[in-house]
Amino acid sequence: MKLSSFLYFTYFGIKTILFKKREPILGTVIVTDRCNLHCKHCSVNNITAVMHPYDQIKKEMQLLYDMGVRILFFCGGETFLWKDENHNLRNLVIEAKQMGFLIVNVVTNGTFPIDLPEANLILLSLDGDKQRHNEIRGNTYDIIMNNIHNATADNICLYMAINKINKDYIRDVCLTARNTKNIRAVSFNFHTPYPDTKELALTKEEKATCCEIISQMMKEGAPIFNLKNAFPYLIENQFPTPCHQCVVIENGKLSTCGRCIEIPGLCEQCGYFFVAEYTLLFHGNLKIIFEMLRTYLKYI
After folding, report:
1. 15, 62, 90, 108: which is deepest, by most CB within 10 A?
2. DSSP for 48-83, written as a single string
3. Is 51 exposed, middle or buried (0-12, 13-18, 19+ CB in 10 A)?
4. Domain residues of the chain, as ranges?
C-alpha cells in the first residue's frame, strides 16, 4: 500500500471513530447480475441478467467517489462477462484508478482468463477441495485452477463462503492459497442465509469449529486475509449491523452495507467477515485496529 493511501485511510479511521461519523469509505458497483454459473448458495444471479451500460457505471463510480469512497469493488453476477461496445472490465478498473480510487478490487468466479494486473486484488471464489467446490459451483475447479496458474499477476485472493457442504474443507483452501503461484491470500465468509438457501447456514458450534481451523492455519503460515480478533463476534453474530462505511450501488439504487439489507432478519444472521471487521474497527475496537493495520499492509 502506498504511504499516501495509508495516511488517507488512517485519517478517515480516526475521524470516523472520534466523531462517530457514518460516511462511506468502501463502495461496490454491481456491473451485472448475469452469471455463467448457478451456484447452490447464491441468491442474486441472473435475476435480470442485464449488462449495465458503461456511461451509467461511470456515473455511479463518480457518485461513490464524491461520497468519499476510496476502496472500490466491481462485483456481479460474473464481472468478467461485463462489456459494453468497446468497454470491458479492464477499462472500468483503469477508469476507477484514474478517477482517484486508492484501491480497486474485482470479484470473480474465476472461470474466465485472469488478465487484470491493474486491479489491487482479484477476489476469486474457491469453495473447498475439488469435490466440494464442484458440488457447489458445477464442474469448474480445474478450469479455475488453470486460470489461476496462467494469470498475469499475483494479485489473486481466494474467496470462500463457508456453508454446510464445504465447512470441513477450509484447510484445503488455505493450503491452496499458500502453495499456488499468483495467489496472495485467502478470505473467508460464513454463508448468509437468504430465504432460499437457509439450509446451508452454519450453527454457532459449526462457526466456532471453523474459526478454530482458520486460527490454526494462521499459526501454520497460511496467508489469511481476515482478522482473528473478529472471530468471537462472528460466531455469536454480535457485531453492529449494518456497516455504514460500506455502500453498494446497482442500477442506480444505493444501499447501505449490501444488497441484502432490505431482507427482514438477514442483518442479524450476517456472515460477512468484512462487515464484522469494519464495524468493529469503526467502533474503536483497539485489537481490531492493530490487527487490520498489520493485515492490510501485508496483503494490499
Report:
1. 108
2. S--B--HHHHHHHHHHHHHHT--EEEEESS-GGG-E
3. middle
4. 22-279
| Residue from 44, 38, 42, 51 nearest 80 by CA | 51
Cα(35)–Cα(290) distance, integer angstroms: 38
d(CA 75, CA 178): 25
Is 226 within 8 Å of 278 (Cβ atoms)? Answer: no
For residue 255, what are the β-bridge partners? Answer: 248
Give the C-alpha separation, 187 to 221, whole Å.
14
Residue type, 86: N
Whether the Cβ atoms of residue 260 and residue 266 lie closer than 8 Å to each other: yes
Which CATH number applies to 22-279? 3.20.20.70
Tens digit of each residue's pLDDT, the chain (300 residues): 887 898 999 999 999 999 999 999 999 999 999 999 999 999 988 889 999 999 999 999 999 999 999 999 999 999 999 999 999 999 999 999 999 999 999 999 999 999 999 999 999 999 999 999 999 999 999 999 999 999 999 999 999 999 999 999 999 999 999 999 999 999 999 999 999 999 999 999 999 999 999 999 999 999 999 999 999 999 999 999 999 999 999 999 999 998 888 898 899 999 999 999 999 999 999 999 999 999 998 998
Find cell 441478467 and name the residue.
49
pTM of model > 0.90: yes
Query: DSSP letter at 288?
Result: H
**Cβ 35 vs Cβ 50: under 8 Å:** no
Cα-based angle 72, 74, 78 (whole degrees, multiple of 5): 165
Q: Which residue has the cell 485519517?
A: 11
Provide CB contacts within 8 A for 80, sequence distance 6+: 89, 108, 112
